[in-house]
Amino acid sequence: MIKFWLRSLTLVAIIFLNSTTSAQRFLTDIDSSFFIKDTVRPVIKRFENLYFSGYIQPQFQVASADGAASFAGGNFSTYSSSRFMLRRARLKLDYILKSKSNFPAAQFAFQIDATERGVIVRDMFVRVFETKHNVLSATAGFFARPFGYEVNLSSAFRETPERGRMSQILLPSERDIGAMVSFEPQMRVNKLYHFKWDVGFFNGQGASGTTDFDSHKDLISRLTIKPYSFNRMELGGGLSILSGGWKNGTKYVYKMGTASNGDKIFLVDSSESNLGISAPRHYYGADVQYKIKHGWGASEWRAEHWFGTQPGTAASTTNPGSLPNTNGVPAPTYVRNFNGSFFYFLQNISNTKHQLLVKYDWYDPNTKVKGNEIGISGSHTGPADIRYSTFGLGYVFYFNSQIKLILYYDWVKNESTQLAGYTSDLDDNILTLRLQFRF
Fold first, then answer.
1. Buried b (16+ CB within 10 A) or exposed e, 84-104
2. Rounded distance, CA 61 to CA 407, Å?
């Protein structure tokens, strides 16, 4: 019994020390003076490849109106315009198995997000590395899709509170179940060290569904150019592609066209052959990041643009977790051309503890129709076709490398249309005050 408790207390101490020491990767680095060395060493050896990390983001928000619809942490309650919330509270466990040459041979990752809204799994995957040349790896499980820069930038390190509206609609939860092969040289002497190429197949529904509701898979690939440093500057970028879709539940497929009077409307194709075939889901993206370092920090610009084709319903362009339906009856498919962009400007002020944030993004879910063309009688257009743009301005104070405070304001602008409730700009601006601690 004494031996059991000694080992239990030792394990708790090991986990605590590993969690709070960011530079400490393996448990054998623990100062053994805390315990009897000969007793604790065998226990430490069992857990030396474990690494714990995580972060918490408590925040307070104020909306410009009660019940504001928001992509800054979800919609506000009907009679509320302010709230405290835990936006994210995550704990991640990684098990790293190293090869004889001290490069990764395998990785197991498990991450949960526990907030007042519940507990969900955010990562659960295994990655196996080729250890002869150390350039290839294969990943399987539930993990981030290899598309875009903003989507793949961790919420623990992203400067602005949230990803853009387009990211959240087209790639909700950022992750999906699938398998991926990656080319990523581990040795800096490799001529292709700055290049990373990922290609994988995924179910398509992300975390919004418990199982794949059809047999159609998404092929996703990204070529990343890691930042090149020259003088005091850094330059990087990437190209992304997604080719997939999901099953039409009916024979009715709507696409944009022109009516006899010249109005832009959705026209229906009711061919029997439409039933069960894949509705096209094709995304294309390009991004670039440029940073200048100077005596009081850095100035950084980021730009990213997406365009493509997105299937949806009359009311939504969000990727579904199950076959779209209305009261159990399969819903017609609406196919739209979309585009959108994200632009960032990050500027240190005086020193690296102070940072100014400027961000602009837009998402146009239907590039074939604009403004007052939306809502015309008989056009079948609706709220899902409205273009939104968001201008964000913020300030970050870094207490240290692990704690930061963010003050950020989102001005959200939507198109004025002929739809009831959308004839002018909605009152949905959001102020966010967030404290973040990570380890």
1. ebebbbbbbbbebeeeeeeeb
2. 10
CA distances from 423 to 151, 310, 316, 328, 375 (A): 32, 25, 19, 32, 10
Q: Is the dihedral of CA 99, 104, 108, 112 positive or negative?
A: positive
Identify any residues that bridge with 93 across adjacent strands, giving them in sequence order. Answer: 52, 110
Contact 233, 292 (CB under 8 A): yes
pLDDT digits (tens, 9 = 90+) for 263-281: 999 999 999 999 988 899 9
DSSP-assigned states of every residue in 30-71? S-GGGS-HHHHHHHHHHHTTEEEEEEEEEEEEEESSTT---S
Q: Which two tokens stand for residue 388?
A: 């939104």
Its sign, for the CA torsion 165, 439, 178, 113, is: negative
For 41, other C-beta atoms within 10 Å of its C-beta total: 12
Backbone region of residue 262 per phi and psi (left: phi > 0; alpha: psi in -120 to 50; beta: other values): left
Q: What is the DSSP letter of 81?
A: S
Query: In the structure encoding, which two tokens stand for residue 35, read together?
Result: 């315990």
Residue 23 reports pLDDT greater than 60: no
Q: In this structure, are residues 109 and 124 in contact, taking their beta carbons and an 8 Å threshold?
A: yes
Task: Report whether 146 contacts 238 (CB < 8 A).
Answer: no
User: What span, in angstroms and rounded, lies between the C-alpha atoms of 264 and 397?
Assistant: 48
Q: Which phi and psi (to 5°) does residue 2 adopt? A: -60, -40
| Lowest model confidence (mean pLDDT) among 17-21, 88-92, 132-136, 167-171 | 17-21
* CA 355/CA 349 separation, integer angstroms: 6
Question: Helix crossing, 2-20 with 37-47: angle to 10°?
Answer: 60
Instruction: Let me know if 281 is exposed, middle or buried by CB neighbors in 10 A (0-12, 13-18, 19+).
Output: buried
User: Strand 136-144 relative to strand 297-312: parallel, antiparallel, unpaired?
Assistant: unpaired
5: burial class by Cβ within 10 Å (0-12, 13-18, 19+)? exposed
pLDDT at 336: 98
